[in-house]
Amino acid sequence: MDFNATKLFIAVMNAGSFSAASDKTGVPISTLSRKINELEQALNVQLLERSRHGVKPTYKGQQFFEQARLGVELLEDAQKSVTSVHKLQGKLRLSVPPNFSLWWDLLIDFQQRYPDITVFCHSSERIVDLFADGVDVALRMGDLNTDDVIAKPLAPLETLFVASPELVAHHGAPETLAEMARLPIAAWESLTHGFFEWDSGTEKVKYEPVFTTNNSQGLIHYALSGKAIAQLLDFSARPWLESGDLVQLLPGIAAQKLPLNLVYARHKHPSNLVRAYLDFCSEWMEKLK
Fold first, then answer.
1. 119 pairs with which residues across the strands?
2. Assigned architecture for domain 3-83
3. Quick one: CA dihedral 163, 166, 168, 170, positive or negative?
4. Are the C-beta atoms of residues 157 and 234 closer than 8 Å to each other?
């Protein structure tokens, strides 16, 4: 069986069409088609169904893809380990939540340790499909609600309620969640989520925000302007708390912990690059404790 033909078949599967695979690999479409035809003849099985809309795998083609991809990745890792003079080289494709400023510092430190690893980092509110989007590792907050990934837990993050000293002076400092719910509130809201309730473990309070956004910088701006209370991740709030531009409300009562996980596809063997990234993130987050 032709190893290079197998790699080209995997490239076509990942890209979804011969033309897209040709763009990514630089291999002419005619060569891709010929090599995959040769692979099908060698295996004596049809791997792809071709149409004007693209390609899709046959049942046998999907089976071959899932098993061959793991083998190709292992062989490529082995090749890199003996040809890179013990240096980790390659490209990592990552995903992080939007406005997650903490991770930019981590990635800078990661590339200082591994200067031969290049990084593509996708930032979006959308939960990426690790397989379809070709993402090696995604950073996710909150409950995962899926069994299709392997999760590596990191230190949980804490959220804080903050406001400007001027807002507190005008309205008074709340002593309970119920009192805080009567103040102007800026809250996080996505296109698909608009449920507003605080839960301290002993108390649940619904509230009506005066402003909502899916951008943490917007929440910070409203808080600094004295227009509303905001709930921020601790690392986002820390510089403003230290400068005195914001003060924390209900410390120890209203704090919420959010699980933080690095996830990668369950069916995909983690490469040397992925393992280095996973280990580095754990080490880096431990230093923040």
1. 92
2. Orthogonal Bundle (1.10)
3. negative
4. yes
